[in-house]
Automatic annotation (TrEMBL):
The keyword Protein biosynthesis does not apply. Belongs to the PPR family. P subfamily. PROSITE patterns: PPR. This is Pentatricopeptide repeat protein. Residues 78-98 have a biased composition (Polar residues). One of its GO terms (cellular component) is chloroplast stroma. It comes from Salvia miltiorrhiza (Chinese sage).
Length: 707
DNA sequence: ATCGGTGATG
């Protein structure tokens, strides 16, 4: 068996007895990433739609589905764990149902009573819910099948639909059919009433009313919207048990369920199973796949989607393009996103707001200022649609690229507009721009404007503002902003704590105490730890280790390294160098600094790009201590040593390189910054060894921990 | 007007 699926609870649809015929995928069991071979088995000869001489598949399969359902399975039977093979394995391979959309011409079009009923529906929708039951009785025409359907279709909200449906059932004027349940469920789904939908589905089972693809896909998508993914999968399995084949809609709905659960392997297996049984995936299925691979950052997966569409002769539509562009951005391929966008426009598909939002975001993250600004220009020239999310994304892009004037112009545009008024996102983007550019006064003007205009400050805006006030050493303003923010409902998160912590690290005396008091309101344990490591009493290494571990494990992953960096800075700035070395060691131990040291035959490198100034200095000292011992022991060394601080692509990035350079200078270490490679400091073995030998033997601080 | 897919921050 070629399948190699690591997660057992697969839908039975995924594990047919003849699965091994169609598995061009190689799915590493221990790897979430899905490796996709570039060749897939050719689609099997179509046993499906398009063959005019044979009966339609729906007809072929009808006996199977109706007999299974008319056996009136009870609830326990229906919901029991399905078997892992097809209901009837001796039958030839089951095929996908082809979709037959219902014609536009509605069954009501020849109904002469339609006008009356429309008015009546409006009356029902407008009346108080308490009066609803009484109003129903005034129905102008008898509730025939068609009349009832028309009304059921136009009722809202779900409470009324449900009451009306019960009323129709009570009239006993005609037998209830599947469509009545489907229409009612649609209204319930609109109100996210999964419990009610499930109850209706069970009622259908009980009464022997067949559930069809429309019923199942409505149930499944409702569960999905209610985030009840297990329920969605469960009902898909139930569908399998009855022997009903999924149609295109059900396929894409279920693929989306698995995709949203992050079950890439299941999605691909189901996709392959569907393909093997004659399903021709459409744009919607490909949009689902593209999004899934984007979420996984899986570029091979994205290529697979493009290739599949090509081989099936399907042109991407707008939504597919949007999903693919987004996915390419998440997979870190801005250049490919750009060329796909050009291809899209050339093929005659006009971008919408979502397309442009995706691209602007990609260009901003890639720091492609020229492309971003050109696209913005093109948007205006072509009259491409703009909405407030796109506006806010443009502002964030300006923040990423340091385009202050452009952002100000945009923000003014928004102020003057009717439908794109600046909201808390817009203000946050501006606070980010002024905050990272150090323009405290403008940031504070915005802050006051927000409270006057009733725009709520959010946690990110608060973080930007506090960062800015901290750098400007306006500690009293910082304390006041923090207080106002918390009182107005901002709940400090780990990033805000990291920001406060960094302000603590470069403040002294009274200022540091004030900021630490803010931090204490947000994170008691962290503030206490700061007091411990910088206070008079000197706790043991083991105590520090345990407490740091406790704090870091309850901290969001993206804030852990910043925490550790700041804590190291705090120690250094308060003359606790040994403790700084301990913290760097612990940070390395807990995996916060992967790839700090890289070694090749020719060169050993210290990578400090993601370290704070103090942490980088500590790491350099630690490394020099280690090398000194290696020299003492006369072990072999490579010809070249280097330390990389990175150059900081961001316009506002503070100069780690500069601080590192002055530290190197202070130590008189023989590192020099490379020509043309800012942030890369190199030293030859000869220079470094003679410098190390000229120094006093390594101190206790630098010998405490070795790598 | 009985079923499915796309966008936002440090």
């Amino acid at each position: 068996m070629a399948t190699n699926l690591s997660t057992p609870p697969l839908s039975p649809y995924l594990s047919s007895h003849n699965h091994h015929h169609h598995c061009p995928l190689r799915l590493p069991a221990n790897n979430k990433r899905c490796t996709i071979s570039s060749k897939r088995a050719p689609a099997p000869p179509s046993a499906v739609a398009g063959e005019q001489h044979s009966p339609s598949l729906a007809e072929q399969l009808k006996p199977l589905s109706t007999t299974t359902l008319s056996d009136q399975p009870n609830e326990a039977q229906l919901l029991s764990k399905p078997k892992s093979t097809w209901v009837n394995p001796t039958k030839s391979k089951p095929s996908v149902l082809s979709l037959q959309r219902h014609k536009r011409s509605s069954p009501y079009s020849h109904n002469p009573q339609i006008k009356d009923l429309r008015n009546f529906a409006k009356k029902l929708n407008d009346c108080e819910e308490s009066a609803f039951s009484d109003v129903i009785e005034k129905i102008p025409h008898p509730p025939t099948r068609e009349n009832a359907l028309l009304l059921l279709n136009s009722l809202r909200p779900w409470q009324k639909t449900l009451i009306f449906f019960d009323w129709v059932k009570a009239q006993n004027a005609f037998p209830m059919e599947t469509i009545f349940y489907n229409v009612t469920m649609k209204s319930l789904r609109f109100g996210r009433q999964f419990q009610h939908i499930e109850a209706l589905a069970l009622e259908m089972v009980e009464k022997g009313i067949p559930l069809d693809n429309i019923t199942y896909s409505t149930i499944i998508t409702c569960a999905k919207r209610c985030n009840l993914f297990d329920k969605a999968v469960e009902w898909f399995e139930t569908m399998y048990k009855t022997g009903l084949m999924p149609d295109e809609v059900t396929y894409s709905a279920v693929l989306d369920v698995y995709a949203k659960l992050g079950k890439v392997e299941e999605v691909m297996s189901l996709y392959e199973r569907g393909r093997a049984s004659g399903w021709k995936p459409d744009e919607i299925a490909f949009a689902v796949l593209a999004k899934m691979f984007g979420e996984a950052g899986d570029y091979d997966g994205i290529k697979y989607v493009l290739q599949e569409m090509k081989s099936l002769g399907i042109q991407p539509n707008l939504v597919v393009y949007n999903s693919l562009l987004e996915a390419l951005g998440k997979a870190g391929k801005p250049g490919l996103a750009r060329s796909l966008f050009e291809e899209m426009v050339e093929s005659g598909v006009s971008p919408n707001e979502k397309t442009l939002t995706a691209l602007i975001k990609i260009y901003g993250k890639a720091r492609w200022a020229r492309d971003a600004l050109q696209l913005w220009e093109r948007m205006r020239l072509n009259g491409w649609p703009v909405d407030f999310i796109l506006y806010n994304t443009l502002l964030s892009m300006c923040a990423d690229l340091g385009l202050v004037e452009e952002a100000e112009a945009l923000f003014e545009d928004m102020r003057g507009s009717e439908k794109c008024r600046p909201d808390s996102w817009s203000y946050t983007a501006m606070l980010n721009i002024y905050g990272s550019g150090g323009n405290v006064d403008k940031a504070m003007v915005l802050f006051r404007e927000m409270s006057e205009g009733g725009v709520q400050l959010n946690v990110m805006g608060c973080t930007c503002l506090i960062q800015c006030l901290g750098r400007a050493k306006r500690v009293d303003d910082l304390v006041s902003v923090f207080g106002i923010a918390v009182e107005s409902g901002v709940r400090p998160d780990d990033r805000l704590c990291g920001c406060l912590l960094s302000v603590v690290s470069y403040c002294e005396g009274e200022d540091a105490s004030k900021v630490l008091a803010c931090l204490e309101r947000a994170n008691v344990a962290l503030a206490a730890f700061v007091r411990v490591i910088s206070g008079e009493e000197s706790p043991s290494f083991d105590v520090v280790k345990e407490e740091l571990k406790r704090i870091l494990s309850s901290t969001a992953v993206e804030a852990r390294r910043p925490f550790c960096n700041c804590l190291i800075d705090i120690c250094r700035n308060r003359g606790r160098h040994e403790r700084a070395h301990e913290l760097l060691y612990l940070g390395t131990l807990y995996g916060l600094y992967p790839g700090l040291h890289t070694k090749t035959e020719e060169e050993w490198r210290l990578n400090v790009r993601s370290l704070s100034v103090g942490a980088a200095q500590t790491a350099l000292e630690e490394w020099m201590g280690t090398l000194a011992r290696i020299v003492q022991r006369r072990e072999s060394l490579p010809a070249l040593f280097s330390a990389n601080t990175g150059s900081g692509n961001h316009k506002f990035s503070q100069g780690l390189g500069g601080a590192f350079a002055s530290h190197v200078e202070k130590l008189a270490a023989p590192f020099t910054e490379s020509e043309g490679k800012p942030g890369l400091f190199t030293a030859t073995r000869e220079d470094l060894v003679s410098w190390l030998q000229s120094r006093a033997p390594p101190s206790a601080a630098t010998t405490a921990f070795t790598n």
